[in-house]
Amino acid sequence: MTERDQKSSAFIVIDIQNDFCPEGALGVAGGDTIIAGINQEIERFDHVVLTQDWHPADHSSFASQHEGRSPYEMITMPYGKQTLWPDHCVQGTQGAEFHKDLQWTKAELVIRKGYRKAIDSYSAFFENDHMTPTGLGGYLKERGIKNITLAGLATDFCVAYSALDAAAQGFNVTVLPDLSRAIDIDGSLQTMMKQMRNAGVNFR
Questions:
Q1: 129 and 80 in contact (C-beta within 8 Å)?
Q2: Which of 31, 89, 113, 145 has minimal CB crowding within 10 Å?
Q3: Which one is catalytic: 19, 21, 53, 113?
Q4: Catalytic residue selected from 32, 120, 158, 165
């Protein structure tokens, strides 16, 4: 990567948190196996951003908050369709912390998402109403970032939604599938991979 490319490129690491790794509350199979490779990518980039799910204990996306509902059921919220999840990444808990093996201290920004009780947030750029910004897009543009590389958990949810929103905002977007892992609910991985390709997202 040239010096000019370094200045205009950022690596965004999506949700490498204890609850998304095996044995976590919403563990993604193989979620911890990608960390060593992600650490290598962190070393390659001058600009690194991390995202962190940061839910209140009574978050509306938790199945526990909906009587008679089970995790992974789909419901309709005021902002659209919402998958219900096991309680996870609750603010201040060990499950919400970054995995101990993630060498994340180089990150210049940590974007916390999903902290509003009434709305979930998969994307690093917008909450699930696709209207409420996290501020990341503006931050990157003010820093002169044009190229974004993403990896993390999970490919078919937070990685994919972040990639789609980044592409829609005009960034040149690359996803690293080998350094991401999917939940894959009812074919969600294939669906989201297709959407990303159709949006012009690159894969490496």
A1: yes
A2: 145
A3: 113
A4: 158
Q: What is the DSSP letter of 129?
A: T
Q: Determine whether 184 is an active site residue.
A: no
Indicate if 113 belongs to the active site: yes
β-bridge mates for residue 176, sequence order = none
* C-alpha pair distances (Å), 204 with each of 76, 127, 175, 176, 186: 35, 26, 6, 5, 25
pTM strictly above 0.85: yes
Q: Please pick, among 15, 19, 120, 165, the residue that the annotation labels catalytic.
A: 15
Per-residue pLDDT reduced to its tens digit, 87-111: 999 999 999 999 999 999 999 999 9
Whether 15 is catalytic is yes
Instruction: Tell me the one-letter amino acid at 68.
Output: G
Rounded-to-integer distance, Cα 28 and Cα 109, Å: 24
Adjacent-strand bridge partners of 111: 51
Average confidence score pLDDT of the chain: 97
